[in-house]
Every structure is written in C-alpha cells, then in structure tokens.
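The authors assume throughout that readers already know how a fold can be written as discrete tokens. A single example would do more here than another paragraph of explanation. An entry of this sort, consisting of the sequence and the corresponding backbone structure tokens, reads as follows:
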Amino acid sequence: MQIAKHKERSKKERLLLQYITLRWEKEVRGAPFTTARNDMEKAFRLPDTLFSYDTSYGLPYHRLVILQNKRGFEKIQDKSVILKPTAKNCKLGCIVIDNKEFDTTGYDVTFTYSPECGKPVRYDKRYRPLIERAFGLTSNEYGRVLYNGRHIYQDTGEWYYELNILNMLLTEQKDPNVLIDQEPLNVYNQIEILY
C-alpha cells in the first residue's frame, strides 16, 4: 500500500488570514435583523498592504469589526495587524493555528473554548472546556471557522452578541479578492443558540 504524501510548501506561499467580528445588541436580535446577518458576506477584499509585509517580522492578517444596528451594518474597524512570530502557533480569538513547519505540509486549525468566546460555554464529552480540531490546511486550501457567543458589557450589564469568522488560505496568490472569488474547502462551525 502506498501512502500519499502532501506537497511541500513553497517558500513563496503565505498564510492569508482574515478575522471578522460581527457584533450586535439586543434591539437587533430578532427578525428582520437576523435575516440580514445570515445574508451578510462571510469574506471581504483583503487590503493590498497584506501582500507587501515581510513575514519574518510576523504574520499579517486582516482584522474587521462590523457593528449591526437598526440602520444596518457599519465597519468600526478595518486594519492590517501583525501577529508576533512564534515557532509553533498563533491564536486569533478562540482559534489556534498550529504551524506544522516541521513536516512542511501545512497548518492544523483548532477551536479552543475560553471565556473570551462568550456564552454558552462549550464542553467536551468529559465536561471540560471544548478543544476540538477543526481541520488541517495545506497548500492552496481555503478554510473558514465560524463561532458565536453572548457577552456582557462590564459597565452596564447589558448583553451583546458576536459572530466571529476566520478565513484562511495558504497560497502564493497575491489577489486581494482571493477570499471572495472562491468558496472554502474546509468549514468548521461552532454556532450555538444565543438567548
């Protein structure tokens, strides 16, 4: 029996990351606002600056925060951010991206529940906070992780809600529309009912 071996990563390949947070409050929780949230795009155009960063200084990613209110959607943050370079992995929200540099095939993507994810708490079968492998990502594979949570404003005690979307693509492409021109091959959902 022959075992298939993944293609080694090219030196020109880079991991493109886009981390989107959609935030809303109680007054826009139900219909018709839910329909608008469900119809919202899950990927956006990447900034051109993302392709010009020297990755030896860190891994750049696109950070978007979108607020939904009664008037519609409003981008309140749209910027490129640099993750500090580490030998093994990086964390965005509740997602850990493990760099499998040692075997040159790609990345492991894992959902790791922490209070930062919001309520409800996600547990495994042994009633421990959930740590679950979402998928592996190799050359030219596009992956997406979606998770939601309910949070509390510390000053008012009011609830607000978030949907977090992490888009990832390991590629040599330098097209800013690369995440919107195709559908992800791997999708992991950690979506709960938010009361």
